[in-house]
Amino acid sequence: MGAKKSVLVTDLDNTTWDWFEAWFRSFSAMLEKLSNDSGVPRSQLEAEIRPIHQLRGTTEYSNLLNEIPSLRAAVLPREPAEVFDEALHALHSERRRATRLYPRVLETLNRLKSEGVTVIAYTESVAYWTEWRIKHTGLDGVIDILYSAPDHDLPRGVGVESLRQRDPSSYGLRQTEHRHVGKGEWKPNPEILRAILRDCGKAAEDAVYIGDSLIKDVSMAQSVGVLDAHAEYGQVQHRDEYNLLRRVSHWTDADVERERALPSGVIVPTVSCTSFERVLDLF
Ligand SMILES: [Mg+2]
């Protein structure tokens, strides 16, 4: 494996925590409540949600309810987020309950740090929810530097502050440094990973990269010449519940199809991890 490794670059969603489980539970709870309270069928809500997610480039869009046409029409002149606040409460409380680290993630990162390894996180999720998850799971300060997408666009006249319901001091990271990758930059673009390593003064051979997606994470690390570790425990694409994400996702149909149709054996990870802790063997 060559040089001694001095930096871990880790994906976050479904690598350090089960993003999908938290998303699925919270989003389904919200949809169910919305459909019951508004009388709009779930299938119609899902169909109206997809283009909004695509426009905003995320499946975690804070102003979603106010932009769903059938909900708007149902409650005019009031705002859907105000009328259907119980659906939003269901979303938030399920998300809080279901967002948890995978086993031994915290211990593994602390062990690496005690051995002088720099811990970098790189996620495609938007800044706001990523910061929330890092704080919620206790990784603020355990991750040295976070690279994420910038926050999603908001409609004119809606400030991010108006969507935040807690004290301003409860937002933002205290110890982890948060840097942004360019808007519209997506994995597996190798240029982003190269730029991250340059930015931190590291070379490809200094680094280990761990992530759950063969298409996005493993192939990106491989094309940069970084030792890739596949978080196979985080794969959820085979689960029936994953179809809900496909139906409302901001991804294009082509992206969804490319992932679904990937034949096994096309992207072969260098190291397969049955738990996050296995990266310790690579340092
Ligand atoms: Mg991931």
Automatic annotation (TrEMBL):
Coiled coil: none annotated. GO terms for molecular function: phosphoglycolate phosphatase activity. InterPro entries: HAD-like_hydrolase_sf, HAD-like_sf, HAD_sf. Gene3D superfamilies: HAD superfamily/HAD-like (3.40.50.1000). This is Haloacid dehalogenase. PANTHER family: PHOSPHOGLYCOLATE PHOSPHATASE. It comes from Cellulomonas pakistanensis. Pfam families: Hydrolase (PF00702). One of its GO terms (biological process) is DNA repair.
